[in-house]
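Run log // design_07
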């Protein structure tokens, strides 16, 4: 089954995994709406892909409600947007910890409540493998990811017959890592790739393929899929 003729909202669709998902859905013939906080980032992408752009802040109740009033009933919603702030557990600011939960967990909660998804359609959340393979100085991100995975399972019951699933990526080379110094970024990615059974880090397109599968597979709900290059078995 393809996504041809389906109406799909991708929140976080201006870059990274969200952008790759929007590109894939558009290529399959879907009607695509992309949303994120920054209109400056959204508009060039929307023009290039020939899709609709709606600036949206998932940390704001009214902004999320306005998005779904604007788009009306849809077939699929994908949420990749996240505002992650972390640091050493004992010293990370509480406002940063709260901001991470607000953007990642409560953002998903808002989207799930406001979206009008047609029966048999789907909501796909993007989490991260820190939920099951924690790393130092990342406790709040792991906790947010774990909460989001639990939410996906619960919503598969509460929102049925709408299907709800989550994709949990491993290390992905996306623009979110652009804030790192280039030399440090390349060294980190090279070391990660060398340690993985697949011999490389992930690309946004790898995750987009799994998201597309969740949208098109009518038998998939309540599932959490880890796409991590074998990190969890290594």
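design_07 sequence
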């Amino acid at each position: 089954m393809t996504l041809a003729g389906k109406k799909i909202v991708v929140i976080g669709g201006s870059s990274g995994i969200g952008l790759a998902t929007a590109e894939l859905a558009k290529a399959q013939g879907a009607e695509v709406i992309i949303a994120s906080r920054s209109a400056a980032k959204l508009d060039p992408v929307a023009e290039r892909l020939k899709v609709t752009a709606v600036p949206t802040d998932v940390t704001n109740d009214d902004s999320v409600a306005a998005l779904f009033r604007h788009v009306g009933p849809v077939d699929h919603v994908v949420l990749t947007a996240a505002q992650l702030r972390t640091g050493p557990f004992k010293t990370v600011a509480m406002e940063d910890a709260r901001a991470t939960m607000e953007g990642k967990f409560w953002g998903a909660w808002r989207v799930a409540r406001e979206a009008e998804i047609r029966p048999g359609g789907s909501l796909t959340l993007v989490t991260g493998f820190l939920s099951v393979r924690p790393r130092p100085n990342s406790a709040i991100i792991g906790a947010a990811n774990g909460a989001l995975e639990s939410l996906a399972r619960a919503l598969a019951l509460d929102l049925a017959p709408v299907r709800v699933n989550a994709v949990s990526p491993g290390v992905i080379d996306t623009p979110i890592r652009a804030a790192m110094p280039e030399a440090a970024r390349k060294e980190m990615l090279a070391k990660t790739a060398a340690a993985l059974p697949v011999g490389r880090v992930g690309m946004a397109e790898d995750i987009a393929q799994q998201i597309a599968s969740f949208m098109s597979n009518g038998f998939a709900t309540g599932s959490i899929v880890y796409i991590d290059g074998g990190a969890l078995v290594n």
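The CA atoms of residues 141 and 152 lie 16 Å apart.
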